[in-house]
Automatic annotation (TrEMBL):
CDD domains: SCP-x_thiolase (cd00829). Residues 246-362 form the Thiolase C-terminal domain. Keywords: Acyltransferase, Transferase. SUPFAM superfamilies: Thiolase-like (SSF53901). InterPro entries: Thiolase, Thiolase-like, Thiolase_C_2. This is Thiolase family protein. GO terms for molecular function: acyltransferase activity. Signal peptide: none annotated. It is an enzyme of class 2 (transferase). Its EC number is 2.3.1.-. It comes from the Bacteria. The keyword Transmembrane does not apply.
Length: 380
């Protein structure tokens, strides 16, 4: 355990159709200010800034720092927003900063997403995938879902149980984008986007931003009411199989042993999991890589109330909460902070102690190349 703690969190809830006057920069600044206030700090206390955003360009972290009126000694940018937490923890430990804002988000709309994937995402997408009529990553992950179904004997209903469960959590989250009840029958009857994926398997693009403050424990110790969420362990893996694998085993498989060893926490001790849910199949893949089960079919067949089946993505995840670009995983961190400090409101778990958050993404060709995981502990 380090002496760096998560001291505050802020969120600008996702919206599906943002106004023309809404900008990615404004979303990031608003979420950052909310997190700083939540930590009981002021902008004068902040000496570090980390940014995860696809659409802030051409501006960078240094520009956002100036626009926020921050004088900083540490800056970072990373599209995997959970990776920023890893960088920030190391910076606090090294004495490079004492209070760092980490913010992720985008004004992500259909048109903006298409332009990003075709022009700015990567040279592989621009040169090899964009010219093909594949419709973006949905088609790629439809193929992964088909392979997963074949290997483990799953059906569309298997993945639907995750989507329905997360919608039930979203119904108790006033910040979630979609809160109306979703039944398995509605899920199965939904239009297909890329067989076997339906509209409920693909996170809706949205505009929004999430932020946290990572600070030296000594700095926030004197702040009355300030939360102090400990980072028990955090680890990352990139290009774990160099895209020579089948995609059903993620980089989390390389991360998990370090997470459990460094934290001293076993998977069975974790109270809830905030797993990156760009598609339900990847939720199951990451949970399996974390060591929760060996048979996905048996896991999804478990009855509601069986732990940890009913403790996954308690915010509603991206599938019901909206995909705000590079801020996707920050949503899971913010939810973990709220649960661990007991401020979730409706949907609050009973005195949770440990949370696990994962980040999966960076699709250079066929599936995600980056994976980050963290074990967090509450200190109430």
């Amino acid at each position: 355990m380090t002496h760096a703690v998560i001291a505050g969190a802020g969120e600008i809830p996702a919206t599906r159709r943002p106004g023309a006057d809404v900008t990615t920069r404004e979303l990031l600044i608003a979420a950052s200010r909310a997190a700083v206030a939540d930590a009981g700090l002021t902008h004068r206390d902040i000496d570090g800034l980390g940014v995860a955003s696809f659409l802030l360009a051409p501006d960078q972290a240094v520009d956002l720092s100036w626009q926020m009126g921050l004088r900083t000694t540490w800056l970072a940018e990373d599209i995997l927003s959970l990776a920023l937490l890893r960088h920030a923890v190391r910076a606090i430990e090294a004495g490079d900063a004492s209070a760092i804002v980490l913010v992720g988000g985008d004004k992500m709309t259909g048109r903006g997403f298409t332009a990003m994937m075709e022009q700015r995402y990567s040279s592989v997408w621009r040169d090899q995938l964009a010219p093909l009529p594949i419709g973006g990553p949905n088609s790629l992950f439809a193929l992964l879902t088909q392979a997963h179904m074949d290997r483990y004997g799953l059906t569309r209903e298997s993945y639907g149980r995750l989507a329905v469960s997360q919608r039930a959590w979203a119904a108790r989250n006033p910040r979630a984008l979609y809160r109306a009840p979703l039944s398995i029958y509605e899920y199965l009857a939904a239009p297909l986007v890329a067989d076997p994926l339906s509209i409920y398997d693909c996170p809706p693009l949205a505009a929004g931003a999430m932020a946290i403050v990572v600070a030296d424990r000594k700095l926030v110790k004197r702040r009355r009411g300030a939360c102090r969420i400990a980072v028990r362990s955090i680890a990352a893996s990139y290009n774990a199989d160099l895209h020579d694998g089948d995609g059903l085993t993620t980089g989390i498989s390389a991360v998990a042993p370090r997470l459990w060893e460094q934290s001293g926490v076993a998977p069975t001790e974790v109270d809830h999991f905030e797993v990156y849910d760009d598609y339900p199949v990847m939720v199951l893949a990451q949970l399996q890589d974390l060591g929760l089960f060996t048979d996905p079919a048996a896991f999804v067949a478990a009855q509601p109330g069986d732990r940890p089946w009913d403790r996954i993505n308690t915010s509603g995840g991206l599938l019901s909460g909206g995909q705000c670009g590079a801020g996707g995983t920050m949503k899971g961190v913010v939810e973990a902070v709220r649960q661990l400090r007991g401020s979730r409101g409706p949907g609050q778990l009973d005195n949770p102690r440990f949370s696990v958050v994962t980040n999966y993404g960076l699709v250079p060709y066929r599936y995600g190349a980056g994976a980050v995981g963290a074990v967090l502990e509450g200190d109430r």
